[in-house]
Design brief:
alpha+beta, Butyryl-Coa Dehydrogenase, subunit A, domain 1, Butyryl-CoA Dehydrogenase, subunit A, domain 2, Butyryl-CoA Dehydrogenase, subunit A, domain 3, 4-stranded mixed β-sheet, 4-stranded antiparallel β-sheet, globular, binds flavin-adenine dinucleotide, Acyl-CoA dehydrogenase family protein, flavoprotein
């Protein structure tokens, strides 16, 4: 691939920055941080109305003709301003999956409605007894006339409080090996049998336990074949690990920390950045951030050529999230005691942005599959090493 094509054109980035300057008040990020809900309805509406969200989606399902590079630059800019767009993130992953494995009717129903802003979708895979071993899901879906009745519980159903649907992994056949009896459904969250309970995490993000009691769905809500859910999950998890991302997931901590260190003086009057140990650590961060960006480009290039790059998506997720954890730990060292001050506390560096990042990055190595699971996938799929765990 030609990496030159992938770098953000500075004029496009300036346009995106000016767009965000005009449209995005700082209160939105503050509200996401305060509530832990990674969704801002006003922003979502704006991105739809301006065609930014629909860039690079097929026109027949509501995609727009906005330049995808501009759309990516806007998402980078939102990210830089602390807006997480998590509900759209999970919706995009599911819609990309539906484009691959769904029926024509589902593409017209869910994808088109999502691009109009009428549908938002949360991921309902993890259960109290099955996370990494997601194929052990026990939530039951039983045929009932021309539909299905669902009973069970999920854990960590993030941003569902803002969503219209859950993309729900269920067990439809308990009498076969666990990977062979799974089926996915689009479950509406306004069903009277649906309930949720918030869970607040270390990183400030709100996620949820969700409960399904005699929830009834039509067969048209089934995504993929009956008992064919494992093949659907293969597609969905690749998209979750970065392949569905429209932003370049640009990591900007090195630049922000360098700016802080250049502006901040120690008691002896020297700039923090003049300390060679500080400069070296920031340089190492910048190198890692560039590597993460290049893996993202390579991933996107493969997706755009029609591949489903399972190992590359795991490499991107593993490298970017573990590097970010190291970087925020380094940042806390460099900032010293003041680095512990949160947003709003007098004297907190960058108004608590580094402190928040330090907590928020802890969970990124867990959701979407833990680092250990990513290493197993890379070992098996990329290096051809023998499988490290027994087949279920
Ligand atoms: C903030 C947050 C948001 C989330 N959002 C969602 C969501 O929206 N939807 C959803 O469905 N899920 C979500 N999750 C759940 C997430 O995907 C799971 O937490 C993750 O898959 C790990 O599962 P677990 O928590 O059950 O841990 P476990 O599977 O119990 O793992 C515990 C530890 O054992 C290790 N381990 C387990 N099996 C192996 C193995 N075979 N080899 C080596 N090591 C192993 C793991 O790496 C981990 O370190 C979210 C989680 C968090 C923290």
């Amino acid at each position: 691939m030609d990496f030159r094509d992938q770098h953000v054109d500075p004029t496009v980035r300036d346009r995106a920055r000016a767009w965000a300057e005009r449209h995005v008040p700082p209160e939105w990020a503050a509200r996401e941080r305060a509530t832990g809900t990674h969704h801002t309805p006003e922003l979502h509406r704006l991105l739809i109305d301006e065609g930014i969200l629909g860039a690079a989606w097929p026109a027949e399902y509501g995609g727009s003709d906005v330049d995808p590079a501009f759309s990516r630059a806007v998402f980078d800019e939102l990210n830089r301003r602390g807006l997480a767009t998590g509900a759209w993130g999970s919706t995009g992953m599911v819609c990309r999956t539906i484009l691959e494995v769904g029926t024509e009717q589902q593409k017209r129903t869910y994808v088109a409605a999502a691009l109009r802003g009428e549908v938002l979708i949360a991921l309902g895979y993890t259960e109290p007894e099955s996370g990494s071993d997601v194929a052990s899901a026990r939530t039951r879906a039983v045929p009932d006339g021309d539909g299905w009745v669902i009973n069970g519980q999920k854990m960590f159903t993030s941003t569902v409080e803002a969503c219209t649907h859950v993309f729900l992994l269920t067990r439809t056949n308990p009498d076969v090996p666990k990977h062979k009896g799974l089926t996915l459904f689009m479950v509406p969250t306004d069903d009277p049998g649906f309930d949720l309970r918030p869970i607040h995490t270390l990183g400030g993000q709100r996620t949820n336990a969700t409960f399904y009691t005699d929830v009834r769905v039509d067969d048209a809500a089934r995504v993929g074949a009956v008992d064919g859910g494992w093949a659907v999950m293969h597609v969905a998890l690749v998209y979750e690990r970065g392949a569905a991302s429209r932003s370049s997931k640009e990591l900007t901590l090195a630049r922000e920390l360098a700016a802080w260190a250049a502006d901040t003086r120690r008691p002896d009057g020297s700039r923090v950045l003049d300390d060679p140990h500080v400069a070296e650590r920031i340089a190492r961060m910048a190198i890692d951030e560039e590597v993460a960006r290049l893996i993202t480009f390579s991933l996107r290039d493969k997706v755009e050529r029609g591949e489903l790059p399972r190992a590359t998506s795991s490499m991107r997720k593993l490298f970017a999230t573990t590097a970010a954890q190291r970087h925020y730990a380094d940042a806390m060292d460099i900032l010293g005691a003041e680095g512990l001050l949160s947003t709003g506390a007098p004297g907190s560096p960058a108004d608590g942005r580094f402190e928040h990042g330090y907590r928020a990055e802890v969970v990124t190595t867990i959701h979407g599959g833990s680092s250990e699971m990513q290493r197993e996938i890379i070992a098996e799929q990329h290096l051809g090493l023998p499988r490290g765990r027994p087949r279920g």
